[in-house]
Automatic annotation (TrEMBL):
GO cellular component: external side of plasma membrane; extracellular space
Signal peptide: 1-24
Protein's organism: Ovis ammon polii
The protein, known as: MHC class I-like antigen recognition-like domain-containing protein
MHC class I-like antigen recognition-like domain location: 26-197
GO BP annotations, alphabetical order: antigen processing and presentation of endogenous peptide antigen via MHC class I via ER pathway, TAP-independent; antigen processing and presentation of endogenous peptide antigen via MHC class Ib; immune response; positive regulation of T cell mediated cytotoxicity
Gene3D superfamilies, per the entry: MHC class I-like antigen recognition-like
Lineage: Eukaryota, Metazoa, Chordata, Craniata, Vertebrata
Length: 238
């Protein structure tokens, strides 16, 4: 109970940071993964969307290893050598999530069609230089599980995340992978990219902005409301 309460407090504080705005020296980098075990036609089984300060700059197809640089922010960093190691890590993450799906999918899945797995990795640097990171996991748009990369704690926020939590909190390899990628790789990418982005983010904004939540790729629009202590957070998932 204590872990769940502290995890929710962590999540609420994270949302406050996202929605209240940040100082010019505070920045965040996020990657949204969508894993579809049975994609239709030519749809990818793994898609990744990259965001800096909630502004989309990257779209990546893990299976085909195809990358699209979006907007001025994407164009600004596409020539950097960081991309080679970054795309390898994103593909490895997609492979891991796909491989884990049979063991973490809810047993009582009654919805029509297969579930898609979404994961959102976020790392950030505050104005005072403090850094941290987190993961959010969900199925078909429903947020289920939170992971605090800094202290290694798991928090289930929906019953569909029960198997996921039971599996991953006892799997040191998976936990270490999520922690290393978010606290290590992601922070390094943010530091490298900000060399190019710092001034751009102060003076301009990308026209495409992504919401701070797990995102499905279903064609039908879904509407989900998360109710947390003292907050009602409404998110539109498309």
């Amino acid at each position: 109970m204590g872990d769940s309460k502290s995890g929710l407090v962590f999540f609420v504080l994270l949302l406050i940071v996202w929605f209240s705005g940040t100082s010019s020296d505070a920045h965040s980098l996020s990657y949204n993964f969508t894993i579809d075990p049975r994609p239709r036609d030519d749809q990818p089984w793994c898609e990744v969307q990259g965001e800096v300060d909630q502004k989309v700059f990257l779209s990546y197809d893990c299976g085909r290893a195809q990358i699209k640089y979006l907007g001025p922010l994407g164009e600004e960093v596409k020539s950097m050598s960081t991309w080679e190691t970054q795309t390898d890590t994103l593909r490895d993450t997609g492979d891991l999530l796909k491989g884990q799906m049979p063991d973490v999918t809810p047993e009582k899945h009654t919805d029509k069609g297969p579930l898609t797995l979404q994961a959102r990795m976020t790392c950030w640097r505050e104005g005072n230089g403090h850094t941290s990171a987190s993961w959010e996991f969900g199925f078909s748009g429903q947020l289920c599980l939170l992971f605090d990369s800094k202290n290694g704690s798991w928090t289930m926020v929906h019953s569909k995340g029960r198997r996921m939590r039971e599996k991953w909190e006892n799997d040191r390899g998976v936990t270490d992978f999520f922690r290393t990628v978010s606290m290590g790789d992601c922070q390094a990418w943010l530091r490298d990219f900000m060399v190019r982005w710092e001034q751009m983010l102060k003076t301009s904004a990308s026209p495409t902005t992504g919401p701070p939540t797990v995102q499905p790729t279903a064609t039908a629009s879904k509407h989900t409301t998360w109710i947390l202590p003292s907050f009602i957070i409404t998110v539109f998932l498309c």
